[in-house]
């Protein structure tokens, strides 16, 4: 049961260095939903993953639309969850499969694992969602993170689930490592 | 002088449920933020005219961004607001120069009409600090259902030599308005108040 959806897009032109011809875009989408397991310990929590699948697909499509780009232009991604104080950290882990696979499907079958983070928190808490390259996790230029949060969420009986996407490398990336042009894209790592 | 923009962020918040009630259609608020270089950071400058021109540029740019992010026509916008946060190298008056003399006219083009005063707030601040942008009905300031606000925050802005400028636009009022007063439907929108 969704109470709120927030989409956010940043367009970055420069960070003190040369101005980019095409700004880097970084976007996030967060859905604030009822946590069906808040309030007491429940052993079998996996059924909720099925319920989250369509939400994951809808969120990934919404974020892509907000970024205004084709799926092929997405180069980095990540996911996260924040569990309200009436729940437990394990509830946040329910987002791994539905969030990750939904985003990879919408993007046309990305190879790399979707990096993630999670925590329990009260309304207004901030979460730094990690970002890595969609096809090769070792691409150093695409390591990043996007901060998300909402002043009234999550309430104690809610959880917030999050997807993030970027259209490219950090705006002034120059720290070396595996280059996006060098990736083989077979194993999801290099 | 035109704005030297480092980044632009847009944010759309939809409320689908509140306190057990379904909100249909969901209420929606957008806010667009530009992080710009403060040309007058570091020392006192008497003439702030260039910042007023930057305000005019950003009023249109950020108003258009909000309307586009909401996916509405300009006429469908119902409320608006503006705010600025000046990094520590500047002064509060820089926010006033951006917000007040010239920002409103192009914003009113972006939202079509806009007879009412654009509610505003301003402060000095640094990266990660929250700026609350007030919201009021765009044509009739007394419409009680549309008094609201939206929070913005960017972890990396404003740096000392920057200014964060925000414009907010909605296509609706609060999710469950029931404290009376003038309604959206009753508003005449001639004098900007009722």
Characterise the protein shown here.
Chain B: InterPro entries: AA_synth_put, BB2672. Chain B: This is Amino acid synthesis family protein. Chain B: Keywords: Plasmid. The complex is a heterodimer of chains A (190) and B (194). Chain A contains 3 helices and 7 strands. Chain A is an alpha+beta fold and 190 residues long. In chain A, strands 1, 2, 3, 4, 5, 6 and 7 form a 7-stranded mixed sheet that branches. In chain A, 48% of the residues are buried. Chain B is an alpha+beta fold. Chain B has a single domain, classed as 2-Layer Sandwich (60s Ribosomal Protein L30, Chain: A), CATH 3.30.1330. Chain B has 3 helices and 7 strands; from the N terminus they run E-E-H-E-H-H-E-E-E-E. In chain B, strands 1, 2, 3, 4, 5, 6 and 7 form a 7-stranded mixed sheet that branches. In chain B, helix 1 crosses helix 2 and helix 1 packs parallel to helix 3. The mean pLDDT of chain B is 96. At the A-B interface, strand 1 of A face strand 1 of B.
What gyration radius of chain B follows from the Cα positions, in whole Å?
17 Å
Percent in strands of chain B: 25-35%
Tally of contiguous helical segments of chain A: 3
Under CATH, the topology of chain B can be stated as 60s Ribosomal Protein L30, Chain: A
How many strands, what sense, and barrel or not for the largest sheet of chain B? 7 strands, mixed
Q: Gap between N and C termini of chain B, in Å?
A: 37 Å
InterPro entries (chain B): AA_synth_put, BB2672
Organism (chain B): Sulfitobacter sp. TCYB15
Protein name (chain B): Amino acid synthesis family protein
Keywords (chain B): Plasmid
How would you describe this structure in keywords?
heterodimer; A: 190 residues; alpha+beta; 7-stranded mixed β-sheet; 3 helices; 31% strand; B: 194 residues; 60s Ribosomal Protein L30, Chain: A; 7 strands; AA_synth_put (chain B)
